[in-house]
Amino acid sequence: MSESDADAGTDPRRPRRSADPATVGGERQSVGAARPSTATLAIARYEGERLVVPSAVAAVALSLFGSLYVWIGPQVTAGVDVEALTEALPPALRALFGLESLGSVPGLLASEFYTLGWIVGLAAYVAYVAAGRVAGGIATDRLDATLAAPTARRSVIVGLFLALLVPVVVVNAVVPLALYGVSLAVGDALSLADLFALHALSVPYLLLWGAVGLVLGVAIDGGRTAGRVALGVVFATWIVEAVVTGSDYERVGAVAPARYLDPTGVLVRGEYALDSVAVLLAATALCLVVAVVAFARRDV
């Protein structure tokens, strides 16, 4: 099938799948004749609904994981010269986890929970989902059926991107409230303002990884393969950024999104790097444009 056939979708014999974004409430929607924004929102709604349950599970899991740090963290570090242990670690390892003030609950959360849970874990999940949705949709002809509506190709990519707001918003809304509640229960209240500031600042970071995942999903064949590559890119950039920090090659780390989200700076020092937000948003827009252009040229 040629690209022009995919875009036009005029063949009446073409099979239509009932489980595609153009079908809402059992009735076929004329997304091809509607405005592009209508098709985009239909796709975003369809894909977003599929992410509600996984997002809720992720929110609960991360809340429990973070609450564990808040609950037993001070007991683990009590009586231990944490600062001396931190200084004894290699610089690359300290940079990797942002180790600073491990003797406090905010420092412990920033250096371990948010590093593993957000900078690596949640970012990897968002990138994996984005890459898998595109590459998997192409491999299984699901996107082929969507384009037969007809639907503008840019609407598909933008709709998939908007659907990623479901896990990003759900997790970032639930976890800070859970951590704050547990901190009140143990009598060592965290700063609610700093918690919400960190989660708000993480939204552009996660959206950038979603856009990167879309680019990888368009470029790589196979949903699982694209997803695995996305996971690898998240881990690789995180490690590279930590290794080059403080070295002669520190400028190389500027391409790593992890450089622009500093949980320790927010929770420990109360510093909000708004310039980093601008960089992340600009990079997200660039990757989204690349994904849209590449998908327009992709034979689906």
Automatic annotation (TrEMBL):
For this UniProt entry, which segments traverse the membrane? Answer: 51-72, 113-135, 156-175, 195-219, 226-244, 277-296
Q: Does the keyword Zinc apply?
A: no
> Which parts of the sequence are annotated with region: Disordered?
1-33
- List all Basic and acidic residues biased stretches: 10-19
Q: Which UniProt keywords apply?
A: Membrane, Transmembrane, Transmembrane helix
Name by which UniProt lists this protein: ABC transporter permease subunit
